[in-house]
Write a structure and sequence with these properties.
Elements (H helix, E strand, L loop, with lengths): L2 E6 L2 E7 L9 E2 L10 E2 L25 E7 L2 E6 L5 E7 L4 E4 L3 E6 L4 E6 L6 H4 L8
Antiparallel strand pairs: 1-2, 2-8, 3-4, 5-8, 5-10, 6-7, 6-9
C-alpha cells in the first residue's frame, strides 16, 4: 500500500504511511516547508549518527497538524471538507500512521485501541484547543 496522500479541491487533508511501507533510505513525505515533518527513518546495519541536537530556531506556525501511530487494535479516522461533507473514512491498524494536515477530523474506535499522538505544543487546554463542528450526515 505504501504512502497515501488524501487531497480534495487541491488541498492536502492527510497523509498515511501504511504499516507495510518500506524505504531503502530515510524518506520524508511532507514538503520541506511544512510545519510538521512526516517520514520514515531507514539506515543499514552499522550506521551511526553522531551525537547532536537541533538548533533552536524561532518558527511561526499557523496550523496545527496531528499525527497518530496505531500501536494496537483498530481505529477509523474520518476526514471532512471545510463544508462538513465526509470525504473519507480511513481504517487504521497497528503500525499504520496518519498525519492530519487540514480540515475537520473525527475518530471512531472499532476495537479498543492505543495510538501515539503527536502534535505541536504548547497545549492550552481542551477549551482552547478544539473547536467542535457540526457535519453533514
Amino acid at each position: 500500500m505504501s504512502v497515501e496522500s488524501i487531497e480534495y479541491n487541491g488541498v492536502k487533508y492527510a497523509e498515511i504511511i501504511w504499516a507495510d511501507t518500506r524505504v531503502e533510505k530515510t524518506t520524508f513525505f511532507s514538503p520541506p516547508e511544512s510545519s510538521f515533518q512526516f517520514g520514515l527513518l531507514a539506515h543499514e546495519a552499522g550506521f551511526v549518527e553522531p551525537p547532536h541536537y537541533h538548533k533552536p530556531i524561532s518558527r511561526q506556525i499557523h496550523d496545527l497538524q496531528q499525527m497518530f501511530v496505531v500501536q494496537r487494535e483498530v481505529v477509523a479516522v474520518q476526514l471532512y471538507s471545510d463544508e462538513g461533507d465526509l470525504l473519507r473514512e480511513i481504517i487504521l491498524h497497528p503500525g499504520d500512521a496518519i498525519v492530519l494536515i487540514h480540515g475537520v477530523h473525527a475518530i471512531r474506535v472499532i476495537e479498543d485501541m492505543q495510538c501515539i499522538s503527536v502534535k505541536q505544543g504548547p497545549f492550552l487546554g481542551t477549551e482552547n484547543d478544539k473547536i467542535l463542528v457540526e457535519v453533514k450526515k
